Fold this protein.
Amino acid sequence: MITTSPACSHPRTPLQTLRVLLVLGRMSNLPTVWSNCLAAWLLAGSGRALDFGLVCGGATLLYTGGMFLNDAFDVEFDRQYRPERPIVSGQIAARTVWLISAALLSLGWLAVVPLGRVPAGFGALLIGMIIIYDGIHKWTRLAPVLMAGCRFLLYLLAASAVHRVIGSVVIQRGAVLAVYILGLSYVARGESKPAGTTRWPVPLLFAPVAMALVASKGSTLSAWVMAAVQGGWVLWCLRGADSRFHRYLNVGVSGLLAGIVLVDWLATAGQSMQLSPFFALLLLSALMSQRLAPAT
């Protein structure tokens, strides 16, 4: 059950309770989950709106369940290093978080079952990857590989809801997204070290730019523009803290997380440019929601 913080003698209001749940679920990252689904869906050729709704609904439940499970596993770590997290600060009971995570993961899988055996299979693999990641991510240097694998499997899940046989374009773009997530994750780990941001993963963040230009052979203006936007965003997030404008736009890992939307937008270059406003809306949603619930 949700409890009061040890430092607070008054019951929590519904808004305070909602904030606890938003923080636990890292809800500010959900627009990036939806952009993953949208990009993979478009790359696979798109399909029925109802099926896309099931994909997004299932992905939302799986991601949120995974984030709840993350905090449930991390109680001992958070007690030492992140005492502000909801469980260890007494804002919610650990048992409640375990139960909610199990329910969300189960419902997420059930949501994609009607899409067919292949999407259901990818959903099961994704749940397994989520559980493994949450269970060991604090204790292994390979945790970013598992996180990248989760996003890659989400691409495959969304695409398989359109066609049971997944095309090479989806696999390539999903792999490039995984490379970006890998770089982002290792940069995030480096930020917590006294020496500051780790440098070697930074080139991985520009993999989407390289893929887009190679795929288009540098012959289309739209590909160059989209590549410039995504590459510029990465540079802003890495260097923006030195700018007087950093207080108005997120920088660092939070900005790079929101930038997953731009990676997905770039992945669909030449597919459905008319949907660019939807990607822009998802990016704005990710950035704005980070004001309510931290992305990390």
